[in-house]
Structure formats: C-alpha cells, structure tokens
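Thread amino acids onto this structure.
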C-alpha cells in the first residue's frame, strides 16, 4: 500500500534490517505526486463554486447569504445526536478490523490493545493519512517487534478488502432499486462481475506454490512479485479471511446508510435508504481520493443530487469533516496511553 510503505520504511526502526528488493536510498516523491491532491481539490472547488453561485443567483441571493440560510435551517442538536454515536461506532468497527488482521498476519494482540494506537492514529490522519498509518507501524514494531513491511502488508490487505466490501454493498443497493439510481450506476454489476473474477485469480496467484525463498537482507538478488515482503498477508490469506473482513466492515456501512439518510433529511433533502445504499459506497471511494477536506466526496454529493446544490455541498462538507475531527477527538482519549506504551513513561510525562 503506497500510503503505508513510504512512512514505515523510513520510520526509525520500523522495519529492522533492510528489506529484500527495497533498496537503500530513501524514496522521494515526484513533483506531480505532491501537486496532484491540490490539483484535484482546485478542480472540485471550482466546480462547486460554479454550481453554488448559479443556485444562489437563481434565488436572488449572494453566495454567503445563500449558504448561511441553508446552515441556519438545520437542527444541529438532532444532527449531533446522529453523528456522535455513529462516529464512535465506526471507531469500534474500524479497530476490530485492524485487530483481526494484525492478529492473523503479524502478532497476537487483544482488541483493547489495538484501541489506543488506532484512535491516536486518527489525530495524525487529519494532516496526512500516511503519517497515521505509519504511526501504527511504529507502534507495532516498538511494542511487539513487528517489521514495518509486515505491517504495511496488513494495511494493504485491509484497503484491498475495503474495495470489495464497498462494491458488494453498492451491488446490493443497485439490485434492490436500480431505477432510483443514476443511469451510470448500471455499470456497478458489470464492475462487480469483473472484480469477482479478478479476486478469484488474485487469491489463486498468491496461494499457489511454495513459501517464498528467504533472501538475505541487503542482497541484490531479484525477488518475484508474489514473494515480495509487502505481499506477506496475501500469501497467507484464504477466501475466509477476505469474507471475514467484509462481514466485520459491513455493520459500519449499514449504520452509515441509516444515519446519512436521516441526517440528509435535516438539510431538507429526501432520499430512501436503498438509494443511500447505492450512493454511499461511491461517496466513500471519493472520500479516499487524495485532496484536502475530502473535496471529491463533497463534489459527488452535489453531482448525485442535482437541484440541491447548496444543501448537498453543506451536507457533504459537515458530514465528512465532522467525522474526521470527531474521530481525532476520540484519539485524544487514548493519546496518553499510546504515548506511554510507545515512548515510555518518561517521554509521556514530558
């Protein structure tokens, strides 16, 4: 996984000895990789500005007055009563997924033992998701001696399963009420069939054959794609591992369907839960796209609900950014314990 490799490879002590085929020189991101998130953000906000300005003009108002009116009509107490329990529930489910995967592929660890570092990583993820995942890798190395590349393999496995769990529920939503979804969503079952065939081939590719031959650290010997340390979790994972992660993740998405449908009603926009089941996986993919403030996800809300530009822009903005910052607040509850376990009592006190 690209978002974990660079962080954990360069973290002090995160990987122990150099990994086979990893090379000794630090990897430096290309300029286009640094600029891409900002380019995506500029395009998204340019689109949103044009849409919102047009909607405000149709109502004979300025943009600030138009958006202020939308925010003023929302019952924020009721909205918080929805979002706070949901965010806490997501944290528990997300931690359960990390706990299960780390226990399978890295080291035995209790569920309560994973909560402090998973929660604390949300704080760092406000600025950079890579840093948050890298902190988890450093914690597992310092606390349990797990090499950084093994942790990276587990994080990659989680992200890989994330795609299939979102695609599965998007397919369910489409199959239940395809007539309520935009025409382009008709591609979902086609993508699902292709993804299922790919997954079957992927599992067979990594599960076949013998265990990889050990290559001494620092060796320049070529390493086959399947045998690279980053794919350790995939070599060990069978179909039931993938299915288990999909099942563990699913309660969070189903809860989101209910919460987002009710929250959307507070912004004056109606949607059925089946519609939301088709929309949310796509929205969540957008939230994972590089760029500040989840700009792609906010833009997708506006695209999927035409005629409600202001309401959907406000809804997308508060939903995704509250979720990020509230999870970080949860992390603050665990920060002292995580620091104590990671750096020792002296560093925590300082």
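Threaded sequence (350 positions):
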């Amino acid at each position: 996984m690209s978002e974990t490799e660079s962080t954990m490879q360069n973290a002090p002590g995160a990987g122990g000895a150099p990994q086979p085929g990893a090379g000794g020189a630090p990897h430096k991101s290309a300029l286009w990789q640094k600029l891409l998130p900002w380019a995506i953000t500029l395009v998204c906000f340019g689109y949103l500005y044009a849409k919102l300005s047009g909607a405000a003009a149709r109502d004979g108002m300025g943009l600030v007055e138009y958006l202020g009116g939308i925010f003023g009509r929302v019952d924020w107490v009721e909205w918080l009563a929805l979002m706070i329990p949901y965010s806490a529930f997501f944290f528990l489910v997300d931690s359960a997924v990390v706990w299960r995967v780390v226990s399978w592929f890295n080291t035995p660890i209790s569920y309560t033992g994973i909560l402090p570092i998973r929660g604390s990583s949300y704080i760092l993820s406000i600025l950079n998701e890579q840093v948050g995942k890298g902190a988890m890798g450093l914690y597992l190395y310092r606390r349990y001696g797990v090499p950084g590349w093994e942790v990276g393999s587990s994080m990659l496995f989680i992200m890989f399963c994330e795609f299939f769990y979102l695609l599965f529920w998007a397919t369910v939503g489409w199959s239940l009420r395809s007539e309520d979804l935009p025409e382009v969503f008709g591609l979902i079952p086609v993508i699902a069939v292709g993804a299922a065939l790919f997954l079957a081939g992927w599992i067979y590719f990594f599960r076949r054959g013998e265990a990889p031959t050990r290559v001494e650290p620092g060796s320049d010997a070529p390493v086959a794609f399947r045998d690279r340390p980053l794919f350790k979790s995939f070599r060990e994972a069978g179909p039931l591992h993938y299915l288990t992660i999909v099942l563990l993740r699913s309660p969070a998405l189903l809860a989101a369907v209910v919460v987002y449908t009710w929250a959307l009603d507070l912004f004056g926009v109606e949607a059925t839960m089946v519609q939301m089941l088709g929309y949310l996986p796509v929205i969540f993919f957008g939230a994972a796209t590089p760029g500040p403030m989840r700009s792609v996800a906010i833009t997708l809300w506006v695209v999927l609900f035409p005629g409600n530009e202001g309401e959907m822009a406000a809804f997308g903005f508060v939903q995704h950014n509250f979720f990020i910052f509230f999870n970080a607040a949860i992390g603050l509850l665990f920060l002292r314990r995580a620091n104590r376990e990671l750096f020792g009592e002296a560093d925590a006190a300082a």
